[in-house]
Specification:
Blueprint (H helix, E strand, L loop, with lengths): L23 H13 L11 H5 L22 H15 L6 H14 L6 H5 L5 H4 L5 H4 L4 H15 L6 H13 L6 H19 L9 H14 L10
Helix pairs in contact: 4-8, 8-9, 8-10, 9-11, 10-11
Family: Belongs to the gemin-2 family.
Subunit structure: Part of the core SMN complex.
InterPro entries: GEMIN2, Gemin2/Brr1
């Protein structure tokens, strides 16, 4: 190997490695001696018997089981579902209607009345029920997009009642807002708190399921984001 530091060669056997080095030269000689003791070639001691036990890899190359007669959907239906899912999965930042459907679902956006059995077991059709604000989704939104989605949902909320899916998205978006707030975000969260207080004022009972969520939205905006004039007084 090429010499890196100007160190004179010495008899490494005469060097006493039991004593700590007293200066940089002795430290380098100690390193030199340790390097001279290392073999030029190192061979790993491997037990072949252990390797034989880990050679089998099971890879499934079979496809899905064929559906019974009459159970599989048509190709046209599959293409329609893929197309509709693609539209709602990645709305553009300026696509207000797309974001509303993505967050709240078609049932809420189109005011579709669910049957009783659907309310008990709505399933996992996110196109209909809306996509939850998964971390994998909201963590990829920049501050501009967060403000845009917050505005879209506020536009919907200004004309309609509070729903659970809306509350979950408001909470997630507020959690992603960075301080100091952008001017548009500052205005939107104040608008959110005022709207929540208006909806709360029209509740008929303090046992309403929406009350806790409305109080939480007002509290976060007023206390965490320091909009103290909007805070509930004790």
């Amino acid at each position: 190997m090429p010499r890196l530091l100007p160190l004179e060669s010495c008899d490494t056997e005469e060097y006493n490695s039991n004593e700590p080095p007293r200066n940089p030269q002795e430290y380098l000689r100690q390193v030199q001696r340790e390097a001279s003791l290392c073999p030029d070639v190192v061979v790993a001691q491997i037990d072949p018997k252990k390797l034989k036990k880990k050679q089998s890899v099971n890879v499934s190359i079979t496809g899905c089981l064929a559906a019974p007669q009459g159970f599989s959907p048509s190709l046209k239906w599959q293409q329609q579902q893929v197309s509709r899912f693609s539209e709602v999965r990645q709305p553009k930042s300026e696509d207000e209607d797309g974001w509303k459907r993505f967050c709240l679902g078609e049932n809420v956006c189109l005011d579709i009345q669910l049957k009783e059995e659907d309310k008990v077991n709505p399933g996992l059709d996110y196109v209909k029920t809306g996509f939850p604000p998964f971390l994998s989704i909201v963590s990829k939104l920049n501050q501009s997009t967060i403000s845009a989605v917050l505005e879209y949902l506020m536009n919907w909320f200004e004309e309609r009642d509070f729903v659970a899916q809306l509350g979950r998205w408001f909470y997630a978006l507020l959690a992603c807002l960075e301080k100091p707030l952008l001017p548009e975000a500052h205005s939107l969260i104040r608008q959110l708190a005022r709207r929540c207080s208006a909806v709360r004022a029209n509740l008929e009972s303090k046992d309403d399921d929406c009350l806790s969520a409305l109080n939480l939205m007002i509290c976060i905006v007023a206390r965490y984001f320091e909009q103290n004039d909007l805070a509930d007084k004790e």
